[in-house]
Design goal:
- Pfam families: MarR_2.
- GO terms for molecular function: DNA binding; DNA-binding transcription factor activity.
- One of its GO terms (biological process) is response to stress.
- There is one protein chain.
- The protein is 61% helix and 10% strand.
- It is mainly alpha-helical and 150 residues long.
- The chain has one domain: Arc Repressor Mutant, subunit A (Orthogonal Bundle).
- It has a two-stranded antiparallel ribbon with strand order 1-2.
- Helix 2 crosses helix 4 and helix 2 crosses helix 5.
- The two termini are 35 Å apart.
Length: 150
């Protein structure tokens, strides 16, 4: 049964979840024209962070906190779309290194720009001081739960 209480009456956890929900819906809308799932987009972002050095699928699995098999499926999805290239690892010819293709880099830049603009717009209602205070408070909460900060 849906709640009809106003946002002002909600506990902090529910307010935080509503903000996250609004952000996630906008992110999904950004991904839709490219046929990307959130899993593929996260993997694209992780691989892009490696810049020119690339990474092995096992490292991608670890960073995404998924099984190696799941990471392979994600990489297959990105490779089928022409966004990721598997190249021989110069240190171990049996292994492959993942890197973004030129198309992958272009798409990642487009999505990253869109995300930054969307996030900026969402928090533009706050002053710079309020944004910094919110950031500091959220970091305190994360650290108190022993969550790994990414």
């Amino acid at each position: 049964m849906p709640s009809h209480e106003s946002s002002e009456e909600l506990p902090l956890r529910q307010l935080l979840m509503r903000v996250a929900h609004v952000s996630r819906r906008a992110w999904l809308a950004d991904l839709e024209p490219y046929g990307l799932s959130p899993h593929l987009a996260r993997a694209l972002n992780v691989i892009a962070a490696q810049e020119d050095s690339g990474m092995r699928a096992a490292e991608l699995a670890q960073r995404l906190r998924v099984s190696p098999r799941s990471a392979t499926e994600v990489v297959d999805g990105l490779a089928e779309r022409g966004l990721v290239l598997r190249s021989p690892d110069p240190d171990d010819r049996r292994a492959k290194v993942l890197s973004l293709t030129d198309e992958g880099v272009r798409l990642w830049r487009t999505l990253d720009t869109s995300r930054r603009e969307r996030d900026d717009a969402m928090f533009d209602v706050l002053s710079a001081d309020q944004r910094e205070e919110l950031r500091a408070l959220l970091l305190v909460v994360l650290r108190s739960t022993d969550s790994e900060l990414e």
